[in-house]
Specification:
The complex is a heterotrimer of chains A (72), B (498) and C (206).
Chain A (H helix, E strand, L loop, with lengths): L1 H28 L5 H5 L33
Chain B lengths: L6 H7 L4 H6 L4 H38 L12 H33 L6 H23 L16 H20 L8 H26 L6 H34 L6 H14 L15 H13 L1 H15 L10 H24 L1 H7 L3 H31 L6 H33 L6 H38 L10 H6 L10
Helix pairs in contact in B: 3-4, 3-5, 3-14, 3-16, 4-5, 4-6, 4-8, 4-14, 5-6, 6-7, 7-8, 8-12, 8-14, 9-11, 10-12, 11-12, 12-14, 12-15, 14-15, 15-16
Chain C lengths: L3 H29 L6 E2 L6 E2 L5 H12 L53 H4 L3 H9 L1 H4 L12 E5 L21 E5 L1 H11 L12
Antiparallel strand pairs in C: 1-2, 3-4
Helix pairs in contact in C: 2-6, 4-6
Classes of the chains: A mainly alpha (72), B mainly alpha (498), C mainly alpha (206).
């Protein structure tokens, strides 16, 4: 029964303990700062914000802020 | 996993002169070109499994109300066709498509081309082999008899090792990312790629290779089976939604803070949910209670994600009319909310008392696996394949047909089984109704389900035709594509320098 | 949140928590409390759960191979929870010890058909099971259970009728001069079904 309790209490302390320490470290390191910047990371000069990137074949989106096709 | 850290390995893994690549941004077209063969292979084989699974599904559904149908062959008996359907769909169609989507998304978000494509292709071939042997084994009567893990022990190691190749490759790609920011989809993908092998190997070892004793097996079984949905398909589905909705409408996700809250609360609570499948069963009561509590806590990630997606979409719902991907994604995202919130209800003891052991559960499983995940797969494939092939989808009509057949089929399916299941459960808990009358009462709902299955099959056929058609176009010379592809990719000859 | 190892740590810890909580701890709890051992019953001096006969154990394989689990559960929920007691599916709830000798444990999640925990008490006759497996419509008209005709052989009667031949009446009877006999798999499956019962009172069910 002792082993059971050791494992039980051990995991009860160890797992959340590690998680809390990691969280504290991450906050101090600034991992949670300026989040919105990461939200923009899927947009760039190739496909900027505002560019609609999908539509049915042969159909145009009326209000799309669409870039003119490049010449090959 | 330690070797890739060294610079020599980095150079060895680079597809071309790494110095040049580091100086400029990798273009989407280059990433698409590197993903072309492996991801198409995964999608094509996934689609093949989808069709096989559909046939098995119709067979199983038909047999439910016509028990004498094809009953003279052992390999076509209901009890073998049903698990064959599940495994063909889960490990064939859904997992292969999920892997294809994950690799493509991972490369795109990390801004690195897929390295050594042949390893992925080899893994895909062996994965298919594993599923094929597994499904054939189930039909031959070699099922392990453990739900969601029926694939016999002579096929599951093939699956595991081909997965290992893919998973390691996904994580190596992650390791070499050139994008300094980790996007929310990358968290989900990374987590899913890591969680799945743990779940799969632990469950196989503890249930098939060296089974634990007694009902602990049931605990491991449902810890695994629920987590396949919760920690493998759900994160990949959410990763796709988090990428494609903002990408298609060209607008960043509403709140990055909410997406972070959603991710960590899902990671924390979902994996504790499984024991709600054993409510009333011969298990320690605390175990089931813990899972019910965790199931209720799932409201947090689900509502968070729903709010976030809704606010991102706000004012852009009209675009669903024009974008196939967006249509499937929004349908999938909304189904995720429905699936999870009904799941919360079904975990409660008082509700489970009625709905457990009924067709309601089957309906619920399809909200998660089809209305959510499969619709997200369809949406992703509609976005990815034109970029891989550099060809447009040949027919807009077939895409529309696919969507409406799938949406209507799912609506029918879910309504019939959810409602029918509740009536079945209420009747079953009432001893005044003879059991055979309970069974007979379910027949109308089971027939509607077969009708729904045919609708879904029509959708799948439309999808197949479009897919074969676009692949056939690969043999035609490349012409100026419509703006959709041009906007997103560069011409094949000579990438434009930034 | 752009630091990979941090993500890894979080992802690792979360799954580790449920692996410990839902898989490891129940195993330890049952192991330590003796829930994973057969008990000697005071009244009879026998061990519970009893060993199944070799035939029934093979019948279990037939049950597994043909996916009976997808329509039949093998668990009785507690009294007052659902209709299990009222439908006479059991006189006591199922407990973990009932399944000690089962590999795999087939609790089941569907009741398209009735629960089978105590089927041998409700239907103790082997010939009933044979007829029911051959064609459920004989014994339970309107049932949606598939017929398991492939577990039987229809053959020409040689000299005299086999003692095992099913007693089939029209419209289910084979053509004149033919008989339907169970294959070994059917015999084994029926042996297994007749071994299914869990009524012995145990300390944890009192």
């Amino acid at each position: 029964m002792i082993i059971l309790w050791l494992i039980f209490i051990g995991s009860l302390v160890l797992l959340p303990g590690t998680a809390l320490l990691a969280l504290r470290w991450a906050v101090r390191r600034g991992e949670f700062h300026n989040l919105q910047k990461a939200a923009l990371s899927i947009f760039d000069e190739e496909e900027p914000v505002g560019l609609v990137t999908d539509h049915f074949p042969g159909m145009e989106i009326p209000d799309a802020n669409r870039r003119a096709p490049r010449d090959p | 996993m330690s070797t890739p850290n060294s610079p020599s390995m980095l150079q060895a893994l680079s597809p071309s002169d790494s110095g040049e690549l580091e100086q400029r941004r990798v273009l989407f077209a280059e990433i698409d070109a590197s993903c072309r063969l492996p991801v198409l292979l995964l999608f094509v084989s996934g689609l093949t499994w989808l069709l096989i699974g559909t046939v098995l599904a119709i067979l199983a559904s038909w047999k439910m109300h016509n028990p004498g149908f094809l009953a003279d062959w052992a390999w076509l008996t209901f009890g073998r066709v049903r698990p064959a359907h599940l495994n063909a769909m889960v490990y064939g169609f859904a997992s292969e498509s999920a892997i294809g989507i994950s690799l493509w998304l991972m490369c795109r978000l990390c801004r690195v081309p897929l390295l050594y494509q042949w390893i992925i292709m080899l893994a895909a071939v062996f994965w298919n082999l594993g599923v094929l042997i597994g499904v054939a084994g189930i039909l031959a009567g070699d099922s392990t008899g453990i739900e969601w893990l029926e694939i016999p022990s002579y096929a599951s190691p093939i699956l595991f090792f081909s997965y290992a190749l893919i998973g390691v490759w996904g994580i190596i790609t992650f390791r070499f990312r050139r994008q300094p920011h980790l996007y929310v989809s990358q968290w989900y993908l990374f987590a899913a790629l890591f969680w799945f092998p743990w779940l799969y190997s632990a469950a196989n070892i503890m249930l098939v290779l060296a089974p634990v004793r007694g009902t602990v097996q049931a605990a491991v079984n449902w810890w695994f089976a629920h987590n396949v949905l919760g920690l493998w398909f759900t994160p990949i589905g959410l990763a796709a939604i988090y990428y494609f909705i903002p990408k298609v409408i060209g607008r960043p996700i509403h709140s990055y803070y909410l997406s972070m809250l959603g991710f960590w609360s899902l990671a924390l609570f979902y994996n504790w949910n499984g024991m709600h499948h054993l409510v009333g069963g011969p298990m320690p009561a605390w175990l089931i209670t813990v899972s019910i509590v965790a199931s209720v806590m799932m409201t947090i990630p689900v509502v968070t994600v729903a709010i976030n997606h809704h606010l991102t979409m706000a004012g852009h719902f009209r675009k669903m009319k024009y974008s196939p991907t967006l249509r499937f994604m929004v349908f999938g995202g909304m189904s995720y909310t429905v699936a999870s919130l009904t799941g919360v209800l079904m975990a409660l003891r008082s509700v489970s008392e009625v709905t457990h052991f009924t067709h309601n559960t089957i309906g619920h499983a399809h909200v998660g696996m089809y209305a959510f995940f499969t619709m997200v797969v369809f949406g992703s494939v509609y976005y990815i394949v034109p970029r891989l092939t550099r060809r447009e989808w040949p027919s807009a009509g077939l895409i529309s047909l696919h969507f409406w057949a799938a949406a209507l089929g799912m609506f029918l399916y879910i309504t019939a089984l959810s409602v029918g299941g509740v009536f079945e459960g209420l009747a079953m808990d009432n001893p005044d109704i003879p059991f055979l009358d309970v069974v007979k009462g379910t027949l109308p709902y089971l027939r509607i389900r077969t009708g729904a299955a045919f609708l879904l099959a029509i959708g799948h056929t439309a999808f197949l035709i479009n897919f074969v058609w676009i692949l056939a176009r690969l043999w035609r010379p490349y012409r100026q594509a419509t703006p959709m592809i041009i906007a997103a990719t560069q011409p094949e000859s000579g990438p434009i320098k930034p | 949140m752009n630091y990979g190892p941090l993500l890894f740590l979080g992802v690792f810890l979360t799954l580790a928590s449920s692996w410990c909580g839902l898989v490891l701890i129940p195993q330890l709890q049952l192991w330590k409390s003796g829930g994973l051992e057969a008990v000697k019953l005071e009244k009879t001096g026998e061990f519970y759960p009893p060993m199944r006969s070799g035939l029934a154990e093979h019948g279990r394989e037939v049950y597994r191979a043909n996916g009976c689990i997808y329509c039949h559960s093998q668990q009785v929920r507690p009294k007052g929870f659902g209709g299990d007691f009222l439908r006479n599916w059991g006189q006591r709830r199922s407990v973990g010890r009932d399944y000690l000798r089962d590999k795999p444990v087939m609790l089941g999640t569907m009741r398209t058909g009735p629960d089978l925990t105590n089927i041998s008490l409700r239907q103790p006759s082997a010939s009933w099971h044979m007829l029911h497996l051959y064609n459920p419509q004989i014994t339970s008209p309107g049932s949606i259970m598939p017929p398991f005709r492939f577990l039987f052989e229809t053959r020409k009667i040689r000299r005299m009728r086999s003692p095992d031949a099913l007693d089939l009446k029209p419209p289910f009877a084979p053509p004149p001069g033919y008989e339907v006999v169970p294959k070994p798999e059917a015999q084994l499956l029926v042996d297994y079904l007749l071994s299914l019962r869990a009524v012995t009172p145990l300390p944890e069910t009192e």
